[in-house]
Design goal:
By secondary structure, the chain is of the alpha/beta class. The chain is about 40% helix and about 20% strand. The protein has a seven-stranded mixed β-sheet. Helix 7 crosses helix 16. The chain is globular, with a radius of gyration of 24 Å.
Length: about 475
């Protein structure tokens, strides 16, 4: 019997290879299965919540550990006494499964293992974006099999989310797996307990650093290769980031994934745009400027930006003024890489003292927020005051009142902790504008922890690397930073 020109026996062989737990007892071994992402527990709790009839959509960029986490999830399910014959894993980008409906794979699973289709079972479809109209297939299966927990994953995050919301309302739950946080990076290198000291003061947790110079060294390593678990665990990847990460991640996304998903014809134009953004991560840009420099129309540039966000390569941050009013429709905005390591993969590693250090430190701070629902309330502030242009790097707004809740300047220098008004004028003026709240403000340093007062405004200073650790740690553990 043939299915789409492919023998059924060959498809079954492929499924059996991908699901060794269908046979004799299978053991997961190696560091890949013992080192878990900080997001493993909340993901597992969501995916195994049998009280809600929903499918889980696991999203995230390439090579952040989605497939490994799914295999760790299978190992966890087996330890929870879910029979191996009731668990299926299928990667939809496997050529043998090309264009095959999900229900056909499910039928083969049932035929091969002879399990009870009405009982509890787990079905995982990896790289789901390679199946056209996957959300329609999944919606039907979710309704038809109430005791099956369907889990799908993919690297085109925004595209998956859009389809999930359009067709899976009430049936799908999204879960984002971001690049490694700085806290996870330190944990993977067995340095978290060595460098960080945690003190619990209910309801918060305070973090201090044992050796700020060593922490800063690791922070620079994080900027250069720390977003990807494979690079953290493999020294050969660290020594040639451009070869292993640049080609494997960026080239595949830009040259293969995005063109195939969206029918992009001018791949080089998209590549040039991303290269420009990566080099200038954290800078304010405009559609007019990008269109003028590239020769492409503003509509084309905007579409490309949406595609790059869909691939989880960049994130756009909107501007607000000193009153808290946002300008989402304005043509000016900031664009950040979702992972600072991508800049090293494209160009060259960054070192302490290099000009890009400040921008990369700022990019790293923003990347810690990616999994948090609060990311939608993060802005940067820019406004005119007299003849001066004032700016604040990071502001969280209260969406209901259009008022800032706190503000931060991200610096990789100790000179801003000297109490000089001109250095942090934007931060000071924003705090004075909202003195009735009052507005907590802070500015990162390179090594210093202290509190200064400028024009009656109290500014808390903390090392940038420690601040990056705190944000990532709190977001991963479900606390508001």
């Amino acid at each position: 019997m043939n299915m789409l020109g492919i023998a059924k026996e060959d498809v079954l062989k492929s499924l059996c290879r991908d699901n060794p737990w269908w046979g004799e007892t299978h053991r997961f071994e190696g560091d890949a299965y013992t080192l878990r992402r900080a997001y493993f527990r909340p993901f597992t709790e969501l995916a195994l919540d049998w009280s809600i009839r929903r499918s889980t959509v696991l999203m995230g960029p390439r090579r952040v550990g989605k497939t490994v986490m799914l295999h760790q999830f299978v190992a966890h399910a087996l330890r929870e006494n879910i029979p191996g014959s009731s668990i299926m894993f299928a990667s939809i980008d496997t050529p043998l499964y090309s264009g095959m409906p999900l229900d056909r794979l499910l039928t083969l699973f049932e035929e091969r293992t002879q399990h009870d289709p009405a009982g509890r079972r787990i079905v995982i479809f990896d790289e789901i974006q390679h199946l056209k109209d996957w959300e329609i297939h999944l919606k039907v299966l979710t309704d038809r099999h109430p005791n099956t927990r369907f889990i799908v994953s993919g690297s085109a995050a925004a595209a998956l989310r859009l389809k999930s919301h359009e067709s899976g309302a009430g049936r799908f739950t999204d879960f984002f797996l971001p690049p490694l946080t700085f806290a996870e990076f330190l944990a993977f290198r067995n340095l978290e307990d060595v460098l960080i000291m945690a003190t619990r003061r209910a309801p918060a947790v305070r973090y201090d650093v044992h050796d700020i110079r060593r922490l800063n060294q690791e922070f620079i390593n994080y900027l250069n290769f720390g977003g990807y678990p494979e690079a953290v665990l493999n020294e050969s990847v660290q020594t040639d980031v451009q070869r292993f990460l640049g080609r494997d991640i960026i080239d595949k996304v830009l040259l293969r994934d995005l063109p195939s998903l969206y029918g992009i014809r001018d791949i080089q134009e998209l590549n040039r745009l991303f290269t420009t953004i990566a080099y200038n991560s954290g800078q304010e840009i405009s559609l007019d400027g990008l269109a003028r420099n590239s020769g492409a129309t503003k509509a084309t540039i905007n579409r490309y930006l949406e595609y790059l966000e869909a691939a989880f390569l960049i994130v756009r941050v909107h501007r607000m003024d000193d009153t808290g009013k946002s300008f989402q429709r304005m043509r000016n905005f900031k664009v950040y890489l979702t992972n600072p390591s991508m800049r090293s993969a494209l160009f060259a590693p960054v070192h302490d003292g290099d000009e890009p250090m400040g921008a990369m430190a700022e990019t790293a701070i923003f990347s810690q927020w990616l999994h948090s629902d609060l990311m939608r309330y993060i802005r940067y502030a820019r406004w005119k005051q007299g003849r001066a242009d004032l700016e604040v790097d990071l502001v969280r707004i209260d969406a209901a009142r259009f008022k800032p809740l706190w503000a931060y300047e991200i610096k990789w220098s100790d000179r801003y902790a000297g109490g000089r008004s001109k250095e942090l004028r934007g931060l000071v003026e924003l705090a004075r504008k909202h003195a009735d709240i009052p507005l907590p403000v802070g500015a990162t340093t390179k090594t210093l922890t202290r509190v200064t007062e400028v024009d009656g405004v109290e500014i808390k200073h903390i090392p940038c690397a420690l601040h990056c650790y705190q944000v990532g740690k709190n977001v991963a553990e479900g606390r508001a930073p």
